[in-house]
Fold these 2 entries.
Entry 1:
Amino acid sequence: MSSREICQHHDPLNGKEEQLYSALDLKSEILELKKQKDALILAHNYQLPEVQDIADYVGDSLGLSRQAAKTEQKIILFCGVHFMAETAAITCPNKKVLIPDLGAGCSLSDTINADQLRKWKSEHPGAVTVGYVNTSAEVKAELDYCCTSSNAVNVVRSIPSDREVLFLPDMFLGSYVAKMTERKNMYIWAGECHVHAGIKPQEVQEKLSQYTNAEFLVHPECSCTSSVMYDVACGDYGNRQVQILSTEGMMNHAKSSANKKFVVATETGILYRMRKQNPEKEFIPMSDSAVCKYMKMITLDKVYASLNEEKYEVKVPRNVAQKAQLAIERMLAIS
Ligand code: 13P
Ligand code: SF4
């Protein structure tokens, strides 16, 4: 029995226990429980700072999928959103995959379901379907290729140029990929992430004029990506430095760049890790309101309960998982 359980058992004011329990104790309880349960904790770059701190790996969707696929541990506790845990459940059918809150969804993955995709495919017979990892398992089961923001361009480049491509569900990432690959036969689903779509070109313009010496790191899901790419291509930024990167791409760039100041256009959770790894550099959010409420549903309390009670297990039906696996394996094979 853990000291947390002993404390709950003996405390006559049981309801107050939650408040009395310090974050530090909770952190060490989780780390202890993690060992006992033989669990691997994965956390996405947008997770709360305290959740990132107890994770074995913090990273982007691709990196976390890779870690899940190669782990030897019995339990994978996924601190992220539901489609990420589902992807881990598909790649690791013999592991128990847990998510601390089943409500942690994704507005982008909700923009397309399997019926809609089947209908779209029937309108383009012979087209190759490429779906962002931010999709449900049922949608992945209908895909030829899965991709993430860090390998979407290379996945599309790997498809013969005479084949039509259906790209889903993010229209901003899709238009970025179409520009980078100069592909004319690519159809893009009109989906978006409410957090990234909420970062407006005006905010970009304001930051550009305010931070003249900063480097700009922009996630391809942002609604400003298309216009930023267009302007960069036209030379409108002169020698200003703008990088379109996945969250892990941003992390790597922030470390390797000689620049000292960065404006970051993605969910603000990534700033914690950036500042921690680069204390001598300055990171400014493009938009303070770029916060994903789904990512923030995962708290330390819920992580503890999830590990302790081995809830909530994410399971994907075998027939769906088998079909989705091929698309995911193709994603993992292309960097
Ligand atoms: P990354 O793959 O770049 O981490 O993005 C995942 C995501 O959900 C972005 O909103
Ligand atoms: Fe989904 Fe957007 Fe949240 Fe990423 S930031 S998990 S795309 S809702």
Note: The first helix runs from residue 3 to 10.
Entry 2:
Amino acid sequence: MLEHIAVEPKQLNHYQSIVGDKVLDELRQLAEPLKWASILHINATAFGDGVAEILMSLVPLMRDLELDAEWQIIEGSDDFFNAIKSSHNGLQSMEIPLSEQMKAIWQEYNALNAKAFEGDYDFIVVHDPQPAGLLHYHGHSGGKHCIWRCHIDTSTPNMDFWNFYAPYFSAHDAAIFTMEQYVGPGLDFEELSIIPPTIDSPSTKNSEIPFPEAQKVVANFGIDLSQPLITQVSRYDPWKDPLGVIDAYRIANQFMPATQLALVGSMATDDPEGLYYLDKTSRHAGEDPDIYILHNYHGVNAYEVGCFQTVSEVVIQKSAREGFGLLVTEGLWKGKPVIGGNVGGIPLQVIDGKTGFLVDSVEQCAEKFLYLLINPDVGQAMGQAGREHVRGKFLITRHCVITCDFLLTFCRIAFGLI
Ligand code: UDP
């Protein structure tokens, strides 16, 4: 049996004050024909990345809509997670080799997990490449609809990786991508949907934390809140470019020496590169007492992440590659201007000059955060615009609406009704 992930119950009623009755009514109506449909989500980790974050909310909300939703994770060894991390990088275009050993480990663990798989579901949603071979090894059972949910940007993959993985992806009946342009070469699904990720506004991390309370929590990490604070929350990963953030901070710091930088990152269980890159980041920061490098082992968990976002003058997400960037959504939802790398899903959220700034270099990043520190009123207005942008497009209730709509269309096509 695969590991079942228990989730805290959630009630849609609690979202009424945030999104209003109209959205909730539309959602309940859409979900009505799907009542009691069983839907299983499978991914690789219960904690620390955007997928886990979404499932933690999507699964209980689907249950509140009376769908029979479940979440399970696959099992893997360090070797498996190392191989898959490289594969993520290769599928997102990195020029690295794919060895026969990496292929064999991925196949071995997908076969083992397929053997351990139990149950019968109307829909199975397989998230990302880690478990994408389950369907192949388990054998396709006619009654089930298997959907591959891709959260990464496979628009220009390294073809060695693509040629190996694409047949496994294509074996699914349907697919969901974050953006149209992420669909990899030659993939042709009968049913394909585009669903941008979303955040759960009343969650521990995203609900409003009283400012003095957030200040107290952040001050406990040694940060002096009488001086400006800039924060990037992210896994320690080359694509998130924490080293570039430090370089930008150093340039800006020459002009505003009291500014502090917090880099906060979780150690996701399926990310073997995390410790190595944390170490590299710490070495890059050197002995600078105004750079704070923190992670969940220091006790920076969901609530503390929310506190850091709440008290920061500016939120940074200087990614060099990004599927969507939930951390950008979270920063905007806290009413903060966000400086984001001009890549992936970030431009969907950071509207340049309106909800923050898009940057292509360390120098631009430094220039923009100096500008925002010098012009706090502009930053505040951008933050407010950002919060409204998120309210309209990137809250979990919207995710539920698009998901139900997709499942209904998919059923109609599968049963020949349209
Ligand atoms: N996250 C967290 N603690 C951390 C770092 C990240 O809780 O120290 C969460 C973060 O709040 C967000 C998710 O992990 O909800 C990261 O999602 P994103 O799409 O930004 O990046 P990913 O890690 O999936 O590439």
Note: The chain has two domains: 3-198+395-415, 211-393.
